[in-house]
Automatic annotation (TrEMBL):
Cofactor(s) this protein requires: Mg(2+)
Keyword annotations: Hydrolase, Magnesium, Multifunctional enzyme, Nucleotidyltransferase, Repeat, Transferase
GO aspect biological process, one term: regulation of nitrogen utilization
Lineage: Bacteria, Bacillati, Actinomycetota, Actinomycetes, Mycobacteriales
Region (Disordered): 1-39
Stretches assigned to the ACT domain: 646-723, 765-842
Organism: Antrihabitans stalagmiti
Protein name, entry field: Bifunctional uridylyltransferase/uridylyl-removing enzyme
Length: 845
């Protein structure tokens, strides 16, 4: 007999289990007489067998739900009949209380029968007599029984000392006998649970996470544990326990209108699958074996084992999201005592336009208008991923109910917010999962529905197809500085398998879908073509490198011809191949595969033309004419998007102007999305495309006044930017490590510096690929100025969270390796670096 989660290790006069060799106890004094021993439960056994064999009628098989209800009715009927024979009535001082599946009305074919015999301090001899005559017929009939005999105070004591027992008794339901006695137990357990949850909540969370660690995630297990796995039936019972404690709703965050039908539908599906698992296995079983999946899928009219796996993944992920919301909501609602009651109410800290942090969650600002702001969904998501704070369930519900569709093509700021989300690496996974479970991700990417919860056909894959794409994005975010187009890399990572689940070659189907999606996102036609080509050829490098002879020139020429000699496409495919392999599963990417693909790429580069040099943007003739007037001129105009503007700065071309202009913009919370820096006839002509973090930008006149102050040396911009950044980082400590409040940001991908020889004598071009930070362009320009480099022109791009900045430099002391090393050291001193790993002793704690 299994250990009893409800504390039913039989205290009192009843033995812990049936003694070996003991026969039924016949008692002439038993109330009601009747059958004894095996005969007493024979009718129950026959009826159970009849239900499992055919549902009780000829050629009719009960479905899973009807079978569970029939089993509940059957066991309740037997117990009430037997109780009447034993004299267990409303005034007898006895009550039979069900826990477990019978209490929840979820009786499975081979579930244990979990019962508590309550008594009101009845004579021990009488208690023993009644208990023996109730338990022994069930034992002798080989019905699995989990039992206990207790008074109400004894049961409450067990619930108060054993968390597992308390969780079991929270489900208790009166079956027969003295109902007042049952109500004393049920009400007492629930009352003590509510009053004691503050001290038991941490233990409850720890127990839950330990169970998840042992049993894994149902959504991503080949043979999942339907009961104990993450997203399983135990988690639904956990939500009920939190609801009884009045900390959360029993079904938080999801309604029936979301993908998968919400929590109630997911619970029903898990129960149905577990019911059929019992019926197919012929015994109690929690783990779904691969060999049983086809039969269970057919019995439930779901389909084959892959269809069943998809259904389970959908249901389990819905339950997992609901539990995350429930635990978070419960933690915030835990009653406070002592000095903790005097804590100040959490403040609302602004994160983005219409987005704030409140109580450790990302929520909407009070003046946010979801029905009039279609880009709000992505701003909320980007803020959540950047700060690693979860989005409030209430916020997601409001967005789901009221946020309109983004117009097509998307505004630039919406695309940028999507890129920021994807650039956050592992943080993006939880955000996308929350958006997907609430129907918002499918609104942004309708094509996602075909791959949602789609199980892999190859056993080497760890994840469902949709989660694999998200994992690929997470790995690709660490490679963004390897490539010239980090934005296209993360988008390709997100879409490379989007063609699966539709029939045909998924690379070909996906390439067409990439065109459709790229046009919707508002990419330039050339970028749409590049994105489509990456999706079309994302398997070209790994398949060629591992299956073809690299010494054969025809092998290399085949790849070059397929890619039309495009070195940028080759570079992106190389990075994607590694991210895709790492996201597939353990051991898929290793030294052997890495070296083969690297060698193939090297040989292809030798055949292809070299990479083109960065080129300056042409200068607007109107700006040239304006420069002739002299002085400091600042113009601010809408760029075309809802939150983007063009700032033009024309001033005498003097050292430090670029740093001062970029610093003033950063101090006014204007993020530089792109910039073109040039000069003409002694005047610098700098154009910045900016996006304000909040509201509208300051007037051009105010920007001009601050720029004049900065040029005059009245503003220490670097110090002001350091303080601004430190304040922002300190307000979001989760994002920056565990060692106090740091003073700098960390990056997902390491910075990369590339040098080119320019066409003019004495000029060189340095290109930086790095993650952005507050005032980065200002800091870079200051580094170049201090190194004695004159910026002849510059071309700046911010793609999501990654910058690709090119500067054409005239080096005062000539182009030497020492000068380049000095400039590189200065650049590396101001860009975000990879977070250092924790010491080994901290990783193991």
């Amino acid at each position: 007999m299994r250990s009893d989660p409800k504390g039913s290790r039989n205290s009192g006069p009843v033995p812990a289990g049936k003694p070996a060799g003991a026969g039924p106890l016949a008692s002439s004094g038993s109330a009601g007489g009747g059958k004894q021993g095996p005969e007493a439960a024979a009718d129950l056994v026959r009826a159970r067998k009849q239900l499992l064999d055919g549902g009780g009628t000829r050629n009719r098989r009960l479905d899973a739900h009807a079978l569970r209800q029939a089993l509940v009715d059957l066991h309740e009927f037997w117990l009430t009949t037997k109780a009447a024979e034993l004299g267990i009535r409303s005034d007898s001082g006895f009550a039979v209380v069900a826990v477990g599946g019978l209490a929840r009305r979820e009786m499975l074919p081979y579930s244990d029968l979990d019962l508590i015999l309550l008594h009101d301090d009845v004579d021990p001899k009488r208690v023993s007599e009644v208990a023996d005559q109730l338990w022994y017929p069930l034992w002798d009939a080989h019905i699995k029984l989990d039992h206990s005999v207790r008074t109400v105070p004894q049961a409450l004591q067990v619930a108060g000392s054993d968390l597992t027992a308390a969780l079991g008794m929270l489900e208790a339901r009166h079956i027969v006998g003295d109902e007042d006695l049952s109500n004393l137990l049920i009400g007492g357990v629930r009352r003590e649970w509510r009053t004691g949850i503050r001290t038991r909540f941490d233990e409850l969370v720890a127990q839950t996470r330990s169970r998840w660690s042992r049993s894994g995630e149902i959504a991503h297990r080949a043979e999942p544990d339907l009961k104990n796995g993450r997203g399983g039936l135990r988690d639904v019972q956990l939500l009920d326990a939190l609801a009884i404690a009045q900390l959360t709703d029993a079904m938080p965050g999801l309604g029936p209108e979301v993908p998968g039908g919400g929590l109630e539908q997911s619970h029903r599906r898990l129960l149905d699958v577990r019911t059929e698992l019992h019926r197919v296995a012929g015994r109690a079983r929690d783990q779904l074996r691969a060999q049983d999946a086809d039969e269970i899928g057919a019995a439930l009219r779901i389909g084959d084992r892959f269809d069943l796996a998809r259904t389970l993944s959908d249901s389990a992920r819905t339950v997992s999201y609901s539990v995350d919301v429930g635990l978070r909501t419960a933690a915030a609602a835990i009653p406070r005592r002592g000095f903790s009651r005097l804590r100040r109410v959490p403040v609302r800290r602004p994160l983005d336009e219409g987005v704030v942090e409140h109580g450790g969650e990302v929520v909407l600002a009070r003046d946010a208008r979801p029905k009039k702001d279609p880009g709000l969904i992505l701003r909320v998501a980007a803020a959540s991923a950047q700060t690693e704070m979860p989005m409030s369930a209430t916020t997601l519900n409001r967005l789901s109910e009221g946020a309109p569709e983004l117009r097509e093509p998307w505004p630039k700021e919406a695309l940028n917010d999507l890129l920021v989300l994807l650039d956050t690496g592992k943080s993006a996974a939880a955000v996308i999962e929350a958006l997907d479970r609430t129907g918002l991700w499918g609104r942004l990417l309708p094509e996602w529905g075909a791959i949602r919860d789609l199980p892999p056909r190859d056993a080497v894959h760890t994840w469902t197809v949709d989660r694999h794409l998200v994992e690929t994005v997470a790995y690709a975010s660490g490679f963004t500085t390897r490539v010239a187009r980090p934005d296209i890399l993360v988008l390709a990572a997100l879409l490379h398998d989007i063609g699966k689940g539709r029939g045909g070659d998924h690379s070909v189907v996906g390439a067409d879908l990439a065109v459709q999606i790229g046009n919707r996102l508002g990419l330039w036609p050339s970028d749409v073509a590049l994105l489509s080509s990456i999706v079309r050829y994302h398997l070209l490098l790994p398949e060629t490198a591992t299956r073809r002879d690299l010494e054969d020139p025809l092998t290399v020429q085949t790849v070059v011809d397929a890619l039309d000699g495009d070195t940028m496409l080759l570079e992106l495919l190389h990075a994607l191949a590694e991210a895709d392999s790492l996201a597939t599963g353990p051991g898929v990417w290793g030294d052997w595969k890495s070296s083969l693909i690297g060698e193939l790429v090297r040989r292809c580069r030798l055949v292809m033309a070299g990479e083109p040099l960065p080129q300056p943007d042409p200068i607007d003739p109107d700006h040239i004419a304006r420069a002739a007037n002299g002085g400091v001129y600042v113009e601010l105009q809408p760029e075309g998007g809802q939150h983007t503007y063009i700032v033009t700065v024309i001033a005498p071309d003097e050292p430090g102007l670029l740093s001062d202009a970029a610093g003033v913009l950063a101090m006014n919370s204007l993020r530089v999305l792109s910039a073109s820096v040039g000069s003409h006839a002694g005047s610098a002509i700098n154009t910045f495309v900016v996006s304000p973090k909040f509201g509208t930008p300051p007037a051009a006149g105010l920007i001009r006044q601050e720029l004049i102050r900065a040029i005059a040396g009245d503003l220490d911009l670097i110090a002001l930017l350091d303080k601004k950044e430190k304040d922002a980082i300190a307000a979001a400590p989760v994002r920056v490590g565990d060692e106090g409040v740091p003073t700098t940001a960390f990056a997902q991908a390491p910075p990369k510096i590339i040098w080119f020889d320019a066409t003019e004598d004495g000029e060189v071009i340095v290109e930086l690929r790095a993650e952005d930070r507050v005032g980065l362009l200002c800091r870079l320009a200051r580094v170049l100025e201090l190194a004695g480099a004159d910026v002849r022109w510059a071309k700046v791009s911010t793609l999501g969270s990654v910058v690709v900045d090119s500067f054409c430099l005239a080096l005062r002391d000539g182009d030497s390796s020492a000068n380049r090393e000095r400039i590189e050291a200065g650049i590396l001193g101001v860009v975000p670096m990879i977070r250092p790993p924790k010491p080994a002793e901290e990783q193991t704690t």
